[in-house]
Every structure is written in C-alpha cells, then in structure tokens.
Write a structure and sequence with these properties.
Keywords: ATP-binding, Coiled coil, Nucleotide-binding. The chain is of the alpha/beta class. The chain is built from 14 helices and 18 strands.
C-alpha cells in the first residue's frame, strides 16, 4: 500500500483564462478501486494527463507508483492481437493473459486475429486485461463503457471488482456501483474523496445539500431578524443620546450619568447584534457552493397524421451479402420509446441507418410513413470542430434557444468562444443533443446519446423525455436510463 498525494494543485490551459484546478489538495490510497465522477468539462481527463506528466502545473503530485492509461493507443491495428499484447505487457506469460480474458468472457481465438477485426467491446476487454497484467502500475481507466453493450458492461464491472489500484472515469451509475469502493468527485467548489460506491456517495451528497439548504433558510431568517433588532437598538440608542441635555416630563433635569450608562448599554447591544449578523452571513456564504442545478429542458415533438410511424417486418441488414442481424420485426407508434438491444455488432446502428433512409442492402419489408420528420443524434462526434457560430449556421439552428439549452446542460459562456475540437467528449455529445432538442420532429432517433455525458445531464434528459413523451427509437446501454425511459425493448 502506498499513497498518491496531490498538494496545492493549480492548472489552466494556456489558451484559457479559467482555471481547471485551483489550489486543490487530497490523497489517494493505491489499493483503492476509485470511481472518478464530475460534470463534463470539470477536468477528469485533464487530471489523468497531469498524473501522466503530460502537462506542466503548479503544486505537487507525489507517488511511488507508475501510471498507465486506458484506452491504450494502438498504432497499427492490422497486427495480430498477441503482438499488441506483448507490446503492452512484455513480462506476462500467455497463460496469464488467457486467464484474464476468460474472466471477461472473451474467446482465446482473438489472440490470433488481426486486432482491427475485433469488435469495439472485444478491443476494450483485451486492452484492459493486458494493462492490468503490468505489476506495480496504477491504472487510469477513462470511460471504458462507451463501446460496451449491457452484458459487456456487466463482465467488465465484475472484472474490475476483482482488481485494485485504479481510478475509473464513468458516468454509468450501475457500472460504478458494481466495481468501486471509493468515489473521487470534482464538485463545483472543491474535490472530495469518500468511501463507498456511487449510490452511497450520491445519498450522502444529497443529504449534505439538504442540510445546507435548511441551514441556509434558518440563517436567512436569523439575518433578517437581527437586522430589524439592530435597527431598533440603534434608534433607541440615538434617542437616549439625544435626551442627555433634556429634562423629564415634570421639568426636572435628567441624570446625565444614568443616561450615559443607558446609551452605552444600548450601543453595546447594537454592536453585539451586528457582530452576530456578520457571523450568520459568513456561515451562510460557506453553504450551497456545491449545489448542482439541473434546469428543466424543453422539447416540442410534432404530432403525426397517423398513429403508426415505422414498421419493420423480418428485416435483416446485409453488408457484402453477409447478414448482420437475424430478422427483426416491430412497429413504432406515436408515443413509443423503443430501445434496440443486443451485443456489439448485432446490427442496432444499421437498423437505425436503414430507418433514416440510407440505401443499405436488406431483406424483409421496411415501411417509414411518408412526410415523417426525423431528428437524429449520431454516435460519433469526431467530426465536430470549428466555431460554434459556424455549427449553428450550418445546421440552421435557432441560436438563442440552442445556447439556452447548452447553458442548462452546464455549459459556461466561455465555452461558446472556444473551438469545438477543444470540447470534452461529453460536451461534444451535448452539442448534438441540444441540436436535436431544437428540432421539431415526429420521431427522434438517438444512437448511444449518453456516451461521455455526466450523470446529472443523464437524469436531466430522463426527466425531459418522461415529461414531453416524444416518439423515439434509440440505442443506449445505460441500464438505469433505459429502465426509466424505454416503453419497449427490441432485442437483435
């Protein structure tokens, strides 16, 4: 067991005026299974780069372990998988690697296939197994679930539960609960480390915010009451002071000593009230700094002329005369929210592209109602770059509404001035979702919309969908999200 110490860490990008970290201090035990959470753009991947020594910073980071990063950059994916494994963990024996991938439900035959022929899920599992075989390293795992189906997420979660000595960035609540024993959270005002899984952290966080809200309400009342008392005391003191040279009602002169004593007493009381008021204001100012506000999002789905929008009957998509999925049949009626389920490579995205009108070879019958307006959120964000104003113009988006949605999804105004290529993965995905929310459509087709998106925004989108009931077909592997949103599951 050893410790990673972070002391007075301060960092900002040269092109940015706003600091990512400012005088941050905490420590981490290298035996922990640490879940790393925080809203998009708060600096999670940046912190990984600081640990890896990729950026210069102020402050100190001390550790006795070597850091390694997932996803591992594979330079030549045409090589056989075993060659890449030997590059990553040269000291490991073949039997050790075969043991590791068996825990992840991966067949041994992948060792003798070109790495590029593995599915995204298989590549994720193989790289994780290889990296964990390097003894004495502390692994920085950056969003491993983005290319994993539900079963893949379960097997990786179970695998990580067997390990120790890692920090895991993930926004999948169920996944985190299954494999971590500590949470490192980047909050609005500070960074905290807490024992437990995501659910226990969220419960404690909400309780703390509830306690601070009640304390804040009490202090606000106290401040108001003290302000009134202070005003009364000041008035009384002034009246007594003014009466020093006066007389009583009977015409006799007042005792100036008595009056002076009374004035001093009233003045002392006023000072005490003022001191208590300042103390209450200081206590109040220390509260509610980490409140995560999630304002309600808006959506205007269009009503369609008929109840049935899409119908598939025994549809299979084909590539180079090879069938991708077994024949599938389902209908989409107004108000339905259909989630396509299945392993990686089972044809979920292909079905979506077919419905979108792409000329894909297929069998069976597909009927998409004439005049149907579709809003689409694609899975890939790598094409996003350039100025936000250009993105708005190219997509003919209502700028005030679009930027209002982004603000509600935790975008700072300074983000509007940055090149989109500098956005985090979650911020890029929010850009596509905000664009879709600006579009009035009969049907919303979203392909893995929650990749990289923080937990608060996921819950925000859940509430939006439940409130406005849009007709949807989507692919998503976040189990908690699916359970709250989907009305029908189609398994491929």
């Amino acid at each position: 067991m050893s410790m990673i110490h972070v002391q007075n860490l301060t960092f900002s990008y040269p092109s940015s005026f706003d600091p990512i970290f400012e005088d941050v201090s905490f420590h981490i035990d290298t035996d922990w299974k640490l879940g790393f959470i925080g809203r998009n753009g708060r600096g999670k991947t940046t912190f990984f780069n600081l640990l890896l020594g990729n950026y210069e910073y102020n402050g100190n980071i001390t550790s006795s372990v070597e850091f390694n990063y997932f996803p591992y950059p594979v330079s030549d994916k045409s090589r056989f998988t075993y060659e890449i494994i030997e590059e990553i963990c040269p000291e490991a024996e073949d039997w050790e690697f075969l043991r590791e991938i068996s825990y992840l439900d991966v067949d041994a035959e992948v060792m003798y296939r070109p790495f590029e022929t593995l599915s995204n899920g298989e590549q994720t599992k193989v790289l994780l197994a290889a990296l964990f075989l390097n003894e004495g390293q502390f692994l920085l795992v950056d969003e491993p679930t983005n290319h994993l189906d539900i079963n893949g997420r379960k097997s990786v979660s179970n695998y990580l539960k067997r390990k120790k000595g890692f920090i895991l960035i993930s926004h999948d609540r169920c996944f985190l609960d299954g494999c971590v024993d500590h949470i490192l959270s980047i909050n609005k005002a500070n960074i905290e480390v807490q024992s437990g899984n995501y659910s226990s952290w969220k419960l404690n966080f909400d309780r703390q915010q509830e306690h601070e809200e009640k304390t804040n309400e009490r202090l606000q009342k106290d401040i108001g009451r003290l302000q009134q008392s202070s005003k009364r005391s000041a008035n009384w003191s002034n009246q007594v002071e003014a009466s020093k040279n006066g007389t009583t009602n009977s015409g006799s002169k007042l005792d100036k000593g008595f009056v002076g004593h009374k004035a001093a007493k009233m003045m002392k009381r006023a000072k005490n009230l003022e001191s208590r008021q300042h103390k209450a204001i200081e206590e109040k100012s220390a509260l509610l700094k980490n409140v995560e506000k999630t304002e309600s999002l808006q959506l205007e789905p269009l009503a369609f002329k008929s109840k049935e929008l899409v119908q598939l009957t025994d549809v299979s998509v084909m590539y180079n005369d090879e069938i991708v999925n077994t024949p599938t049949s389902f209908k989409v009626k107004e108000g339905d929210r259909v989630v396509l389920d299945g392993k990686n490579g089972s044809g979920k995205s292909s079905i979506l592209h077919l419905i979108l009108g792409e000329p894909l070879q297929h069998t069976g019958n597909l009927n998409v109602s004439s005049g149907l307006i579709i809003s689409y959120v694609q899975q890939d964000t790598s094409h996003l770059k350039g100025k936000l104003s250009d993105f708005i113009e190219e997509n003919q988006i209502d700028e005030p509404i679009f930027k209002s949605i982004l603000r509600k999804m935790d975008f700072e105004r300074i983000q509007f001035e940055k090149d989109i290529s500098h956005y985090s993965g979650g911020q890029k995905k929010k850009l596509l979702i905000a664009k879709s929310l600006c579009e009035k459509a009969h049907l919303y087709i979203w392909d893995e919309p929650l990749n990289f998106i923080d937990v608060y925004s996921r819950m925000q989108i859940e509430e939006l969908i439940k409130r406005f009931n849009p007709t949807m077909i989507f692919v998503e592997h976040d189990q908690a999200f699916r359970e709250k949103v989907a009305t029908q599951t189609i398994t491929l």
